[in-house]
């Protein structure tokens, strides 16, 4: 593939870089320390058109290509991985399911609100006993007249603290395994939906990860997304795309760790010369740079397939797995290059380390990515 970006894509990169440097960088440490949702930044992202980059203009979005969206997550995550995941979850799994599977009425009503940033979107799949085995989830949805009544609970819902809409997966058929799941658009404020405990996480502070409970929560039947029984398919299709966003987020963290480590190594002198001149350090940086480049190629390759409406499940899993492992390794090595300073909160590399870890876990653990890749290798999918 040709890693040449168009003029529009480069304009997107510059716009997001400027926004990240001028508006996000000054508050990134505060957001990490105080773990608050950056409402004003998200509002600004809405004004810049970032909350609906790949959503068609006819539904209030920016109508740009998928690669531009991935560029935005990549650039934003170099400064704040938390904003990267807020944007990725909002778009890939909070908004796209409506674009791809919604009725015309659902699209007309919800997409302009989500694409403008007036609404923040979230995705509610995981349950206390259904993580990797998403198809075994137990939240029930029973049809009653013109409504569905939802009962059950969800955990680890990114953006859930502030979300206006949740794409919720629930069981409409007890005996049909993963073919018995359906998807619903559930609005914040619906009676019976309660926003539960906010997690105290190792990193990714600001993105507000919460539990949800549904207690006789009545959702209009018109908010069923797709057909009954299509829920698992909808979840998998959107996770395939979402994982490219997590790859881009991981790439941003890895690149930032590399840049900080290179700068520090050039400026730090020991035994009479800069530590960059020791192979012990320069080899580390060379390995980091190589893995960052590999992550970039995999991520933009998966984005390119998606953009051209080609099958991208295997490639998005490869990109997510490789880029998140690279982010973790790059952050670990960056701390090593910084030595004792890297272990303190005075430098951002310890935040990169804390933020990187979850990229190996969410939107499917890296073990699950290997299952997805393996099944394709053996022709099982
Ligand atoms: N793409 C397309 N289709 C897929 C697919 C994929 N990646 N994975 C499975 N499917 C399809 C299969 O082709 C199969 O279709 P048919 O029935 O038509 O043949 C069907 O789904 C069932 O497949 P499996 O038998 O392989 O299903 P399984 O129950 O064994 O599980 C799994 C498959 C890959 C392990 C899946 O459960 C999975 O991806 N689990 C991880 C869940 C996950 O990613 N959770 C993330 C939560 S959201 C999040 O983290 C967001 C956030 O907050 C940041």
3D architecture notes:
- The chain is of the alpha+beta class.
- 51% of the residues lie in helices and 15% in strands.
- The chain has helices spanning 7-24, 28-34, 39-47, 66-79, 81-93, 96-101, 104-116, 231-267, 279-307, 313-338, 349-359, 366-377; strands at 121-124, 140-144, 147-157, 165-171, 181-187, 193-198, 210-220, 224-225, 269-270, 273-274.
- The strands form three sheets. The protein has a four-stranded mixed sheet. Strands 2-3-7-6 form a four-stranded antiparallel sheet, with no helix packed on it.
- Strand 9 (269-270) and strand 10 (273-274) form a beta hairpin.
- The longest helix has 37 residues, at 231-267.
- The mean pLDDT is 97.
- Residues 89, 93, 123, 125-126, 132, 134-135, 158, 178, 232, 236, 239-240, 313, 362-364, 368, 371-372, 381 line the site of acetoacetyl-coenzyme A.
- Its cofactor is FAD.
- Pfam families: Acyl-CoA_dh_1, Acyl-CoA_dh_M, Acyl-CoA_dh_N.
- This is Acyl-CoA dehydrogenase.
- Residues 122-217 form the Acyl-CoA oxidase/dehydrogenase middle domain.
- Keywords: FAD, Flavoprotein, Oxidoreductase.
